[in-house]
Amino acid sequence: xxxxxxxxxxxxxxxxxxxxxxxxxxxxxxxxxxxxxxxxxxxxxxxxxxxxxxxxxxxxxxxxxxxxxxxxxxxxxxxxxxxxxxxxxxxxxxxxxxxxxxxxxxxxxxxxxxxxxxxxx
Length: 121
What we know:
Elements: E1 3-7, H1 11-20, E2 25-30, H2 33-43, E3 48-51, E4 55-56, E5 61-64, H3 71-77, E6 78-79, E7 82-87, H4 94-100, E8 103-108, H5 111-118
Parallel strand pairs: 1-2, 1-5, 2-3, 4-6, 5-7, 7-8
């Protein structure tokens, strides 16, 4: 079973994880253990939980589910280069994501917005 790693443990991540939990192993990365434990309880299955500080995203399939205003601080705490990087961040440019997080493949739920913007990179 493939693994999906969520960066962020809020309502958006929980909703997506619920839809993927029967097909993927779920990992969640967050700022503190208490919120990670609550995420696991709400999801209703055992998951792998990690704290954000210096988390290595190397060759992981990442779904970024943090507030757009936190992209810089989150990016500073991540190490490595993600294999696939999915973003659900509204109003966050591809350029801003590329400046803060390393990835090999980018997939966005807001593909039209990012596609149009990527012409200027």
